[in-house]
Design brief:
The chain is mainly beta. It has four helices and 18 strands.
């Protein structure tokens, strides 16, 4: 039935009370059995709340439906689960999400040696914190995607060196496949940008060793 609005002087008939007031509110029942005993002839669109399952259910014209389970989901591979009940688990690829938003994943490294790789370092921000001299190596296995970058922060007290080992690094008027560059004093930073296969530009506060 459609919603009805009364005006002053209208007669409130018993049928109006039953239809507009009784059948179009959310009734609360202890459980489904109590509801079925009370509402023996439900109408399409009626709603009720069941206290035992904390579920809001609607009558779809042939049965009461609703509850807490998701019975039909159209989604990609990030939504997993199965069966007809239980919980739905949503697995979010945080790295992909932050990359899409333009936010680099942050990695803290307290070691003194690291060889950059596509899987571990491409698109990341690396914060090196060792108090000792630290060497970051770029070689053929680094194999960044052209256009990809890694930001490197020298937060440790030890000197941070970027070393070419087969790959080409160009910076500070120097192109080398075997040389090294230092990032300036503590808290300085640089960016390593892949401009071609196995070729990189080192941008920032750097100097040739």
């Amino acid at each position: 039935m459609p919603r009805k609005v009364w005006t002053a002087g209208d007669v409130l008939a018993a049928a109006d009370v039953n239809t507009y007031l009784g059948d179009q509110v959310i009734s609360v029942f202890a459980d489904a059995a109590a509801r079925d005993a009370s509402i023996t002839s439900p109408l399409h669109g009626m709603a009720c709340y069941l206290q035992d399952t904390n579920a809001l259910e609607l009558y779809d014209g042939s049965a009461w439906a609703g509850g807490g389970d998701i019975t039909s989901v159209v989604a990609g591979t990030a939504l997993t689960g199965g069966g007809t009940g239980g919980d739905v688990t949503l697995n979010v690829d945080l790295a992909a999400t932050t990359a899409a938003a333009g936010i680099a994943s942050f990695v803290t490294d307290a070691t003194t040696a690291r060889t950059l790789t596509t899987a571990a370092d491409e698109g990341k921000t690396l914060q090196f914190t060792s108090g000792s001299a630290t060497v970051v190596t770029v070689n053929a296995s680094t194999d960044f995607t052209v256009g990809a970058r890694v930001d490197i922060i020298a937060d440790g007290a030890g000197e941070l060196t970027i070393e070419a080992d087969g790959a080409t690094i160009k910076a500070a008027e120097t192109s080398t496949t075997t040389g090294s560059f230092t990032i300036g004093a503590q808290y300085s930073a640089a960016t390593l940008l892949c401009v071609a296969t196995d070729e990189y530009r080192l941008i920032g506060n750097v100097a040739v060793v």
